[in-house]
Every structure is written in C-alpha cells, then in structure tokens.
Fold these 2 entries.
Entry 1:
Amino acid sequence: MRFVRDNGLALFFLFIFLCSAIAESVVGRDVFNQEQLMHGDEAISYGRYLVSSHFGEAMLENWQSEWLQMFLFGLATVWLVQRGSAESKQPGEEGLQSDEKQRIGGRAPEDAPRWAKVRGWRTAVYENSFLIVMLVIFLGSWLAQSATAWTEFNDDQVQHGGSAVSWLTYLGEADFWETTMQNWQSEFLALGLMTVLTIYLRQRGSPESKPVGAPHSETGSSV
Amino acid sequence: MRGVFVVFASYMILISFGIVLYTIVGATHH
C-alpha cells in the first residue's frame, strides 16, 4: 500500500481521467449515433466509436490546450512575476537564475540527476526538459486534433453536398480555429485567475496556496 | 523511486498512445 500512498496524487487523477474519458466515449457514441440515424445511416458499435475521428477530435482538442497552458505557464513564470501570488517567484528573481541556485554543473550535489552535473548540451537539454516535453506533446495533440477534425469536417461537407478539402486547406478553415481558440481562451483565463486569486485567497494544506496566515504581499508558496 | 517511475511512464505511454492513435485515425479518415 506504500505504492498507493507514495503516488496518490498521480493515481487519483489517472483514475478520474479514465472515468471521465469512458463516460465521454459512452455519451459521445450516443450523440454520434443519433446523428447517424437522422441522416439515414447505420449506428456504429462502441469499439468502432473508440477509434473514430468524432471521439478523437473531442478528446484531443481539449488535450492540446492543457499542454499549451502548462507550457506557457512554465515559460512565463521564468520571466514574469506577480507580486503576492502563490504561483510566482519573488519580484527581482526573474530570469534563469544562477548555477548555484539551480544546483547545476559544479554546484550539483552528489545525488543530482546525471544530466544536471555534466554541463554542455546535456545540461542545456535537461534544464529545459519540462518545457521541451510539454511543447512536443502540445504540438502532437494539436496535430492529432487537426487530423481528426479534418476528417470530421470533410464528412460533414460531403454529407451536405460540399466537397472535401485537403488537410492544409483545413488548417485555414474557421472550423479549426474556432475549436482551437475556444479551448485556448478558457485555459488562459484560468491561469490568469489562479495567479491573482492566490494573492488574496488561501487553501489550508495545499502547496498551491500560501500559508493561511501569510500576508497578501508575500509572493510564492512555501508550505 | 521505481514505483514513482512506473506512474510517470504510465502517463507518458498513455499520452503518446493517444496522440499517435488519433493522428492515424484522422489521417486515415476513420
């Protein structure tokens, strides 16, 4: 049971992700089949729906915006601060900080990750590894969204007597940008809101919050 | 730390699988 306790946070979110994704696939198939029947087409099986562009598009358009959000937050908090926010570094600490503070190269402790100790290109990669991976999975998810949405778009076009378009043409369609912006705007607003709410509001026991008694002027969380 | 790595790897596999699967699904007009 030590495994469960040590990994409670990640396992909890994995569990509720799986529950939500399954629920989404069940009701998503209902929506899809209702449309099929209205158009005089046949309903599809649950297994077939799981590998459909309808399901993929619905899931991936939300995924991409989450990774973009985390990528941008990781990047922006290097260079920008918000006085009083639990999510921010201290004003005056903007930037990449010293090797000493970041414990890299000769300043790395014995048990530091190997790539933090060696300097050169490996340290350069490792010190940006979070943003690199977030960017790659954001671009990957956005690509998957565009591919599935393209297929959905063309199906709709053909069904209504229009003609199918190429993937590149689809990237310039309002349909693609509407779903993209619809997801981006909510993520950006949520990040901004979290940044300012944590100036004045608290959650006792959460590392996302400043200690309850911390003054509003105190920046950064250190529970 | 091995258990922690298993959880980390599970997430990475899940996300990579989702991206690759649905890119193929879309690209093959499924």
Entry 2:
Amino acid sequence: MPGKLVGRNYTPPDHVAKVTGRAKYAEDYRADGMLFTKLLLSPMPHARVRSIDTSAATAMPGVRAILTADDLPDLEGAERALTNEPVYAGEPILAVAAVDELTAAEAVERIQVDLEPLPFVTDAVESLRPNGPNARLEGNAWGAPAPGGQGPAAPAMRETVKWTDADFVAAGEGRLPTGKALEEWSYGDLDAGFAAAALVLDETFVVQSTGHHPMETRSAMAYWQNGKLFIHASTQSLAQTRNNIARWVGIEPSEVMLICEYTGGGFGSKGGGAVSMSIPALLSRKTNTPVMMRITREEESYIGRARTNLSGRARVGFAKDGRITAVDLFIVADTGAYGPLGDHRSAGLAASLIYQPPAMRWRAVNVITNTPPRSQQRSPGPMQANGIMEPVITKAAKQLGIDQVQMRRMNSPEGKADFGPANPNGRRNHVTSAFVKEALDRGATLFNWDERKTRTGKRQGSKIRGIGVAVGPHGAGSVGFDSILTIRPDGRLYVQSAVGNLGTHSVIDLARVAAEVLDVPWEKVEVVWGDTGKHLPWTCPSVGSQTTHAMTRANYAGAMDARRKLQEIAARDLGGAPGDYEIGGERVYRRGSPGRGLSYAQAARRAIELGGKYDGHELPEDINVMTRESASALTGLGLMGVAKDNHPRDGVTYSFVIGFAEVEVDVETGQATLVDFLAVGDVGTVINPRSLLAQIKGGSCLGIAHALFQKSIVDPRYGVTLGDRFHYSKPLSILDIPATMRAEALDIADPETPVGARGVGEPPVGAGYGAVLNAIADAVGEDVFRRAPVTADIILMSLENGRRMHEPLRTHV
Amino acid sequence: MSLSRRNFIKSVIAGGAVTSSVGYLFRSSGVLGQTSTTPGSVERLITLNVNGQMRRVDVLKQETLAMTLRYKLGLTGTKLGCDRAECGACSVLIDDVPHYSCSVLTHTVRGRNVVTIEGLASPTGQLHPVQQAVVDEQGFQCAFCLPGFVMAAVGFLKTNPTPTREELAHGISGNLCRCQDYDKILTSLMRGAEYMRRATT
C-alpha cells in the first residue's frame, strides 16, 4: 500500500533527542538516594554453592543488602537471575547493594562462597562421547518438544545422550558423527533422491557462537512507589517484557511500570527483556531504596547471551544439471547452559526452503554445555544453515561446471513454495510468497556478476579475488496482535506503540500505516511509546523480523476500525448509511458532496458524547488482556480504533535477501578482505526505504563479521570465557567493509497481508555470511575451510599444506 | 589515545582537601562521614570547563571523565559501551581532539575545554551541522554509539574538512556500532562535513 506516507522516507520523531544526547537509555536515569549493585559471578563453569559467608561484607559501612538465589521466586527450573548451582563461568550467584559502586564491589570481594566443583563440558560433541561429561546434573541434551505444530511447545525435558565409539569411528576423520538424534523429520523419498544423483557430497561445517554484544549492556534501575515496581531497562519489546518482569519478580503484570524509550541494541538478546532485571527490582524492594545495576562489558560477555553454535553435516545429492535431488542434514546444536532454543529446527526448515530439495531428512540433537547462555541472535538458525549448506552447494556447482547464481536460482523457492516436513494434516507448510528468482536476477545485474566472474580467481601479486552469492532466508512476520489508536478532539491521531525502540524504527513505522489509512498528515500524528504506564497494546516481540509485518497489520486493523466508526458517526448525524461516507483531508464526508461531513476533531467529540464502542467504553471481545486494560485507561479521550489483527493469511511469512560479495585474499598472509558487497531484498512492500536499506546492510554486516572474524571463545580446560572484551570477540569495524555498500529492495507486495510488508532484520545475516564464505572459496578453493570464521591462519595453513589443516570439529576455538 | 598504564597510575596524585561528594558513585566516605572502606576514595573539589561552562565538582583522583560527566554533571549523553577504550561510545572533545572519556582521568582535564554531545548545539538549540546531517540522513539505528561517533567526526573534521568516504571512515574507525549501520553513518557524517563547509563559507 505505498501512498503519501508508506514507502517514503521521513525523520523519526526521536531523532533530535538522539543527536543531542537527550535520549535516555536505562543507565541514564537517576533516582534520589539511588544505591548501586555489583554481582558476584561464579568463577567455575559448573558448581554447587555449599555455603555463603557474607559477614565481612555486611559489616562494611554503606552495604545495604545482599540478594541471593534464595530470595528469588521459583521459576520451575527456568533460568533465574541468581543461582545456587552455577552452570557456566560468569553466572551470577549473588548481588550486593551499597551506597556506591566501589563499596558494592569491595563488599563482593569480602564475601566467601564455598563452591563444590561439578563436572563440566564446553563442547557439544565432547559431551556426546561415550564417557563425555554432562553439563547439567539432569542430563546433557534437550528432548524433543511435544508435537503439536504451531502452538507453544511443552517444556522440553533434559535427557542424557551418548554416542558409541562405533559412531565416531564410522564418521571418519574430520566428519561429524551421526549418532542418536533426539529430533527428526523427513519428507520425500530420500534413497531415490540420492540414487538419482549424479553427484553426492558429504561435508561437515562448524558454525561458531558469537556474543550479541549490543552497545548498551543490560543495565537497569528500579524503584518502588505505591506498591508498584518502576523499572528503567533495555528491551526489544515493552509488551512482552512486562509480563516477564512480573514473573521474575513474583508480582502481577499490572504492578510493573516498565520504562524503555530507547534501547541500545538487542539483536535478540533482549527479546523479552533480561532475567537480570529482577536483581535491582528485588534489591530495591529489600532496601526500600532505588537501585541501579550497571552491567559491565565483561559481565555482558557472560550474561548477555550468544548465538547457538551449530555443527552440521550435510549430505546432498545433485543431478547433472545442478538440481538438488536430496538433502540429509544432521545438526548438533550447542545451546549453552540454559535453553532449549530452536536454532537447529529453524536451520532445518531454512535449508528445506531455500534449496527446495524434493526429498530431505533432518536430524538433530540439542546439547547443553557449560558455556554462557544462548538466545536467538539475529537470524537464529537460517544463518547457520547458510554456513552448513553453502560450501556444499558451491563445491557442487564448481564440480558440475554450473554458474553459482544459476545454481541457486534453479534450486530457489518460487511463489507459495512448500518447505519442511508434513504437518499432522498431511500437508507441508508453504510460504506466503517468494520472489527469490527475481531478486537473484536483479542482484546479478547490479553486481555485474557475469563480467566480474571473468576477472576473479586470477592471482595478481600475492592476491586473488573471488566472488560469492547466497540466499538468506528468515521467517518475517507473525499475526494476531492488537492496535489502539485515538482521534482526539484536538484533531490529532494518537497511536499507541509497545514496540521496543531499538533503532529499526518499526516502533514508529507502524503509525505511518495507520495515518495512511486514515489520511492524516504526519505532523498531526503522535506516537505514544516507551512506557507501559502510557497504556500500550499487546504487541509482538521485536524478534524474528516479525514487527513490521505483525504491527503494520495490527495498525491497519485498528485504523480500519476507526474508519468504520467515523463513517458510522457521520451516517448517524448526517443521514444515510455508513457506506455512503468517505474519508479524506481529515474529514469524513458524504460521497460526492465533500461539504457534508464532519472534521476528525468534530467526530472525536461526537465519539466521546456517544460513548459505547466509539470512545472505548465497549471493547472488542478478542483483544488481549493488556490491550483491554490499556484501552480502558484511554476511554473517553476521543474516537478509538481498537482491534486485533484477524486478517487471514495463507502460508508462513518469510523474507529473503540475496548477498553478493567480492573478496580479496592475500595468499601470503591469509588475510581475506571484503572489497565489494551488494544485497537485494525480497522483503515485501517497503514502508520506510532508508531504514529498510540500513537493515539490509547492517544485517549483512553481521553475517560478514561471522564469515571473517567474529567469535566467542571458551577455554575447554577451565571452562571460562576468554572473549570477554570487544578486542577478543572481534566485532566488525567500519574499516572491515567497503566504504560504500549497496542494497536494494524489490518492493513487491506480499499478497497475504493488507499492507504488503514483510520483515527484514534477519534474512540479510545469512546472505552476508554465505556470500562472503562463498567468495573466499571462489578465491582460494572450496576445500580450504570447513568452519567459520575463516581467519587468516585457517587460509594460510591450508594453502601452505595443500589440504585443510584446521581442527575439524572443536568449537569455541 | 595514548595513555599507558604507567602514566595512568603516575598521574594519580594524592592531595587536596576532603570534601563530601554530590555524586552517586563514590559516596561512602563523605556521606557516611567515616574512614573510607575503599582505598583511595578521597575527593577534591576542582573546576572543569565543560561545554563552555565552568563547573565545580568533587572528584576522586582515580575518577574517569566519563563517570564525572555522567554521574556528577548530569551529562548522560556521553555513553559507556565498554569502559576500556575499545568502543568509542564515550568519545568527547578535549581541546578539540576526540578522546575516550572512559580512559581520561578527570583531574587531568583541568584548564582544558571539554565538549560533550550536549554542548554541540547552539545555546538557542540550533543543531551543529553534523547533528543536523545525522537527522537529515537518518543516520544511526539504536543510536547508543551516536554521541561518540558524532564527537569523533566533529573532531576529525576540524583537521580534515574535506575528507573522502575512506578518509572519514578512518577518522571514525575508533568507534564501534553494533547495529553495523556503518554505511548510513558514513553517509550522514559526509553530509555533516558538507554542512560544516557550508557553514564556514
């Protein structure tokens, strides 16, 4: 629905606050008498707390309270903010609140914690060995979730899985063993697919873990007032975090006032907030004083979440013309100390979607290790699938003499493409739409693929260039969330938004759609966001590239509801049927006679006089309880549009980004440098062009960093995180990318949403990752590496020895 | 940024009168009126020139400029991303040169001009050309790194008002953005350079 607002650039209303330093993030708030807290972190990767002696600390002047796991609500086995059985090095055991931070830190030093060391393991495959250690006392792997399709999975059980010596022997050197799996699906005739193949490749690939490391750590400040918790924290979704905080603290959601106007990045690590938020909240209740918790960068390395690393083995059959005939994929997921997470599942589905094998089997085991907790990180699963699958596709294309773009094009999804296994009803899922072939064609043209191909692969001095292409997919939209908006007697449109303001601008973009539907000029739109005390509706979490899709739909529904109400009020006052009335120019008027109508300001006053559904006294039955509470608080302020998104949708919404990369590898130093990058998005209707292209480029950069250098390192002997600083985890800097990157979007509407928009945040990550890996392979040979990041030592060692030299299976190296 | 550990320690010189703190972070000694529990937590009153204003403030001898700005002067626009001179989020100008304020001791900037993100706009609220350019180009996403980038760019542009994209990228390469919106950041700061040139001609 491109129009006056949708599809056009604008300046978000929060930008001046951002450039002047007035934008307040969690740690920028102050409260009178505020205490500070410091955490005592476990030095061991797995231990049991035998006893804690706090006497020396509590004797210190200025120490006000100590919080331990015993003070926290029971969360039925789920991760809590503090623990008596640390399962990774760096897990918080207790917290001290004191009048200043130095005193709190000094008090932590004076606390004696007696820890009983327990067995630990940092590598998933090690844990699967016959005598491998278990990360948790209850087992080493997460069982499969209860079957049931789309609904919430039942809590997974911890199980113990050990593979046999024969499994390891059968795999052979450098290949991932395929022992007992805890999860499995398949479709098509796998054996027939491999039998029909002209080429079968069988490759192992190790995708690394990386810390999310948003620039803003998960600092938080809390205080209590009139029995309610006021908490300033950093989250990707206000709606989804309020209930979590309530659960973590042990109070009702209505007792939580969450303030988060600005979020300094999250990338999935703050999807529903952070469990550590409960520490200042509970310390504040204990001391009856505000408490600030500043999380350091080092602490963020432990508690700040990381990507689930996947080790995968892919056996893929290809026909002579390059068509994939069968895929047999086995994944070992390292889900860290807590979980379970579903990266291994979404990786399997992504592989089925973007390569469209007619037959596929997916097996996985989801292993627990004593390493920092994982959470979804920007493209959780599909990006790893790009890593596991792309080297195989690239190698096959080389061996079969097929162009890399054509190889991906012929195997790419089109239209309402099926993917994954059959549902209980016997049918496979399909996407709402896919225009991958169009995006590949467009990108190949923009990138001058055919021309570039002729000049790469030739050594010039010590340098060789290579080019690569990859299709990054990701789920891109949920449905069924709510909208609240009001047209008030001042003639302005107020749109409530509980989306986290983490820089994607979807927190504001959703209001553009409402204003478009109601034909309200942008300067008359107020977006209300950043504080659950401001009566916000039930909103999707801003993870999984959902928000643009879900919340433009919801606000389309809310705006359509307001539009209907405008028409009804006009018909009631001016005669005729609601259908006789149109809207435009901030008026509702009789079709054909624009003079006969009401201004929005007049209609808002009439709505208040009429009451009932018009001003929010009567609310729809199907809205969420949070929306109901919020709408009730806004009752009587004007004409209310309030609705749940019930627009039908045929299929599962996915977006696709195609990455094209050119790298230059110095074969004397092993250094790979990205020299050019282009991405084309099949991401539906464009709502906010400048922001969308920035998402494509920024997401691509995350994938590029994963291909070239970013990783997390855990020492296997002591189980401690070694990459606890930016310096060691190597995030991308501005000098690691070309001075200009290019991106474009097809801007083809998705047919299954009234707005046409799909999400965009995640699909570029796999596109960047895969394209750069493929470009390196193109330059120096596709057998040089089977793990990422592809650092200089990997390239140099392999080239010098004429074969792959890196440790094939170990993770966190 | 060159501040060796040795110089850092050497520069911590004890002395001065003990006064009570108006700040948040290091209160125990003054507030409680007792011998400090933490070594070295002795404050002294100094005067700083921040954003063109003379500010009197109690600081500890080991206190960093970032903490003074954020917790004692209320200038929270300066962000702490790592507190270890790795990310540049805390960059401020000291005598027109960008510095990581997390790694500058407050007492070393006495007599020097400190400018933070809050001091860039004119007193009447007119944005600095670089700020205006960021607004116009919608530079940055989450914007937590924004103040540091803008201060680094303003400092760099004073030495090179006509940079190429590559040169400006080098000039701000001491700053990290985890949204990795580098391409749009660079576009907005290049526009900032253009606005600055226009403002001076």
